Amino acid sequence: MTAAATSYTVIDGRKIATEIKAEISAKVLTRKQAGKKIPHLAIILVGDDGASQTYVDHKVKACKEVGFHYTMMRFADTISEDKLMKHIDQVNRDEDVDGFIVQLPLPPHISVEHITEKIRPDKDVDGFTNRNFGSIVSKYPLLLPATPFGVMELLKRYQIPTEGKNCVVIGASRLVGAPLSMMLVEEGRATVTICHKYTQDIRSFTQKADILISAVGKPGLITADMVKDGVVVIDVGTTRV
Are 166 and 210 in contact (CB under 8 A)? Predict the structure, then answer.
């Protein structure tokens, strides 16, 4: 809500994450007690980018908390694209691995598109492949991108209606802004406006928003005078300091 509002509700992402982890942990325990396979996540990290390492650490921690098996695969930033492709092929064929991620960004000499499309769509945990990305509009993706899915889950768990609402998404990246906008339309039945770095007079859009979602890592981009009272604001942008 805006600073001028007389009351507001904090959308507590950490609280919801804790609840979801507890639910997943219970399901994993049930599978284990029944002698069924425990989910196994593989993580491929190339280079030593600080932000990437932080993201990977969070994913490993989450696996431990819910009881997933996980495999870390680390490679120097000098690895060739062909060699990385071969490792991805191995993970694709490994039936013990249920899903995997290739942590972005990758070194400049490696094509993100080539690597992404090498991932089996049914193991594409990040939902980055063209198969999963494009299938959002058909409502039948194999796997959804995590951050947009997380935003939709937050709205659902806080019982925030989206149907017919004016939703403004700041950021048009393929990782968050674009898929989230499609999900808000297809699943949420909202009227969606995407603002990006070329949008003129962003304020004119944000002031009309019933739901405002910022997916850019730019602190201070949205100020209190840019939103109306009663607006729902969710910030999923990150800035490394």
Answer: yes
Catalytic residue check, 207? no
Q: Which structural domains are found in the chain, ordered by start? A: 37-135 (3.40.50.10860), 146-235 (3.40.50.720)
Instruction: Give the tokens for residue 142.
Output: 């194999």
Examine the residue annotation and report whether 103 is marked as an active-site residue of this protein: yes
- One-character DSSP codes across 87-141: HHHHHHH-TT--EEEEPSP--TTS-HHHHHHHS-GGGBTT--SHHHHHHGGGT--
Q: Which of 108, 50, 53 is nearest to 79 (CA)?
A: 108
> Is 59 among the residues known to form the active site?
yes
- The active-site residue out of 49, 59, 118, 123 is 59
Which pTM was predicted? 0.89
Q: How would you write the pLDDT of the chain (241 residues) with one tens digit per residue?
A: 434 445 688 999 999 999 999 999 999 999 999 999 999 999 999 999 998 999 999 999 999 999 999 999 999 999 999 999 999 999 999 999 999 999 999 999 999 999 999 999 999 999 999 999 989 988 777 899 999 999 999 999 999 999 999 999 999 999 999 999 999 999 999 999 999 999 999 999 999 999 999 999 888 889 999 999 999 999 998 766 5
For residue 13, give both structure tokens. Answer: 């992402």
Catalytic residue among 49, 124, 126, 210: 126
3-state secondary structure of 224: helix
3-state helix, strand, coil in the chain (%, to 5): 40, 15, 45
